[in-house]
Structures are given as C-alpha cells and as structure tokens.
Amino acid sequence: MPCSKIHLLTPVLFLLALPAFLMAQGKAAPTSYDLRVRIEPASGNLAVLAKIEIPVEPGAKNFRFNLHGTFVIKKLLLEGKDAIFSSVPGEASFMLPPPQRVIVTLPAVLAQNKVHMDIEYEGRLKEVGEFGASSDQKEAMDDQINSRMVELAGYSSWYPQFTFGTPLQLALEVSLPQGWITICSGKQLENRVKEGREITRWSSPNDIDILVVASPHFKKKTFREAGTNIEIYHTQMPEAFIDNEVQQIAGVLKLTTDRLGETNIPAGTIKHVYSPKRKGQGAAGISRPGMIVTSEGRTLDSLAQDPHFSLFQGIAHEVAHFWWNFGADQGDWINEAFAEYFFSTAVQTVSGEQAFQVVLDNYRKQVRGLPPDVPSLANVPFMNDKVAFVVRYYKGSLMLHSLRQTLGDDKFFQACRSFSDTYKGKSIGTQEFRTFWKDRLGDHKALVDTWLDAKGGLPM
Ligand SMILES: [Zn+2]
C-alpha cells in the first residue's frame, strides 16, 4: 500500500450531521419509500411520484414531515383516499434552507401502526450557493439541479423527511435525459434508455438517506479489492490520483473489516463520486452506506496548491462511517469519535507509529486550546461549529485512545467490535456508550465518566 502524505487540516466537516429536529424520537420501524423521480436539468425541475409506508404511533391524530420549501404538493392520499393536510414554514439552519413542515391528519381508524401515503409533488430547488461559495453566506446548500450536474441528499428535504439517522428502506427510479450518468443510494437494478430518457432503478433495504448524483460527463473506473467492488466516478480527476485512492480505500476497508467484521455495504460495492461542484462540504464530503460524495472542485483546488495532496484522512474517516453510524441526535459524537479514531489507527498501520503520534499530538493541541466552559462529550450539541467539532471528533478520539491504553490493543479492539455488533442498525446515545464501556473497563470504569463529563479541554 503506497504511503500517503497526511494532511493535518482542521477541515469544516458536515458529514453525517443534520440538525436534531430531524432526528427520530425512539422510532424503530423503518420508513419505506418507493420513489419515481423525473429530473429536467435544463429547467431545474424535479417531479416526484412517491408511495411511502410511514410508521405511526398508536392513537396519533396526525403526522408531520419536511419537504423542500418551494415544492408544490399536487396530490396527497392516505390509504388511497384524499387526505387533509396543511403546511407551515419549518425550522431553517445554515446548511438547511427553510423547508415546509407538512402536517397530515390521520384517518380515525388505522388497521396497523403504519399508514400508506401516495404523494405527488414538483418544483425547482431554491437557489442557494454551495457551502463555501462566498465568505458572507447566510445559508448554504450543495443540493442542486442544473445543466452541469445534479446532486440531491437530505439537506434540501427533496423527499418527504420524517427522521434522520434512522433506517429507511428504498426503491428508487430516476429519469434523466439520455446520456446522463446517474449514481444513487443502494444497488443498481436496471439502466435502460426509453424515449430519449436514461432510466435507472435502485434498491437499498437499509439506508439513512436518499442520494442522487448525476452528470453527463461522469467517467467510471471500477476496481475489485479486498473482496469489494470499488467504483469511482469523476469528470476530470488525474488518473494517478484515482489509482492511489483505490489503494487507500482498499487498505482501510481491509483493516477495518479485520477489526470489526463485515458491515452493510449494499451490493458489496463502494461508490466514490467526485460530484462536479465547485465548492461544497469540505474534506471527503458526505458518507452514507456504501457511498461517499466528494467535491471535485475542492479536491482539484487542493491538488493545484499541493501536488502531493491526498484525501487519505477524509477517505479513511468516511470508510469508517460504514461501521460507525448508529449514534443518534446528541449521540452523533459517537459516530465521529470512532470514525476519526479509526482513521488515526489506519495511519498507525499504514504510515507507522511516528505518523500516528503526529496525529494524536494535533488532537491534543486542539483540545488543550478549548475554553474551560465548553460542554462535555455527554452534553456536546449535535453540530459542527469549531468548538463542538473539536470536542466531538478530537476529544472523543483522545478518550478512545485512553480507553485503548487502559485495556490494551486486543481487549480494546474486541470491545469495539462487540460495541458495533450490539448496536448495528439501531439508534443510541451517550448513555448506551457509557454503560457499555464502563462494563468493559471493570476496575477502571471511573475513567469513562471522567472523559464523558469533563467540560473544557483534556480532563487529565
Ligand atoms: Zn464523520
């Protein structure tokens, strides 16, 4: 495996993070989506026909979902009958332009604790600049539809959104003009041309978001490494960069599989898409089961500044999220701490002890610089401003490193595997982390509370 130059950046990462108001409140059953999506890049129009099975609480009078603010609902049926619904402006945040909050009245009697909704809607996305497109942004959105490219993810609420970070089931059909290359969440079932349209169908039985990325200019490179297919899509990345990246993905995948066992990679394929946007979410971008979407523009900018630029840090972190994705709401720090620490252990394996110490020293330096009143890991909010980022990613990593030093490598990595096996496909918070790891630490269990509850920088 080629040695990678490690870049100790403090990138602004918005990886899995979406705000807490989209999080499920302990809802277990997955929402099941069957979407037919027609996209017109020239006009920017998106039209969707959706059939959705929605779990509802017993006795509930209504349910709510978010939908992109400018979309118009043309039809909404529950159990095949016209439904009563209204919509109010939803909560917005920097990365999420204001959605509409749709409130639907439930029938008086339901046969089961779920309801079937048919919904038809269409519209054009609000025009908001990509993240980082200007220095004085009030809001940012990477989701876009234009004649260069399409990118859709949970950030725009382009599909009815009930929760975020809990499992959803997906069947998806996307129609784009002939010649466009489409990459979506899950496994590709079909790709055909009909009446001048490129039709693709996808299935993902256990996902957390619905991604659609498309461009008429995508080139595809396929590799098979470590028992997994790796597909890379890009429009203008240098070949040598792509070849090096495949080795990195394969190496990190093998290392993490050895340590934690197999994970959910739909169809045994990892898709890494260099979305041809100019700016957008930083570092390696966003990660969903089996799929990573990175800004091609940002990566090319970094390469122009430094020909040895490598995405190793970002890629290793994102690959680790294929396992570490079950922390929900405030507990999202669990995903980030483990993904980040597993990146640093990949550095230890690939580049050696000295490089590993450089990574840890950077974490320590950043964490020492935190103000004394910064919330503890047990209370850090689910967001990525500069302070919360250092707590969630770096202080969390240093806690895991401390647990590893106390337990020793064998026990620590066995415990990681057992933690991941126990909570795979579920949603947990800080409390589950605390209980699990205190149990593993035995006589040293106070260490877990010390790390979780200390405000400010390093607790010792
Ligand atoms: Zn992450």
Features:
460 residues; alpha+beta; Neutral Protease, domain 2; 8-stranded mixed sheet; 5-stranded mixed sheet; 20 strands; 29% helix; 28% strand; globular; binds zinc ion
Description:
The protein is of the alpha+beta class and 460 residues long. Helices cover 29% and strands 28% of the residues. It has a domain of 136 residues: Neutral Protease Domain 2 (Neutral Protease, domain 2, Orthogonal Bundle), CATH 1.10.390. The protein contains nine helices and 20 strands. Strand 13 and strand 14 form a beta hairpin. The chain is globular and about 60 Å long.
Widest sheet, order of strands: 5-4-8-2-1-11-14-13
**What is the helix content?**
25-40%
The CATH class of the domain at 325-460 is identified as: Mainly Alpha
CATH topology type of the domain at 325-460: Neutral Protease, domain 2
Determine the strand fraction and express it as a percent band. 25-35%
- List low-confidence stretches: 1-27
Element pattern in H and E: EEEEEEEEEEEEEEEEEHEEEHHHHHHHH
Please state the overall shape, judged from the principal axes of the Cα atoms.
Answer: globular
Structural class: alpha+beta
- Please describe the biggest sheet, giving its number of strands, its sense, and whether it closes into a barrel: 8 strands, mixed
What are the bound molecules?
zinc ion
Number of helical regions: 9
